[in-house]
Design brief:
Layout lengths: L1 E9 L6 E6 L2 E5 L8 H14 L3 E6 L5 E7 L3
Parallel strand pairs: 1-3
Antiparallel strand pairs: 1-5, 2-3, 4-5
Length: 75
């Protein structure tokens, strides 16, 4: 099963946290800066850990703070 969520990212933060605004919108603070895709990689890693899912894939907004991420649940 998959679902899509909207994520607002705050790169270069001093902390890492995920705040749920509602069922499909989240705000995520990450330490990595948006250089060479490192922030996106860190974001997907954090989301996989948070949702305990198989995959978190950015489907829209690769170079934006506002992203759409597809969460792929484990079988």
């Amino acid at each position: 099963m998959t679902r899509k969520i909207k994520v607002k990212v705050h790169p270069g933060s001093s902390q890492e946290k995920i705040v749920e605004k509602n069922d499909s919108e989240y705000e995520v603070w990450i330490k990595k800066r948006p250089v060479e895709g490192k922030a996106n990689a860190e974001l997907t890693k954090l989301l996989r850990k948070h949702f305990k899912c198989r995959e978190a894939k950015i489907v829209s907004g690769l170079s934006s703070r506002n992203k759409v991420v597809e969460i792929v649940e484990r079988d």
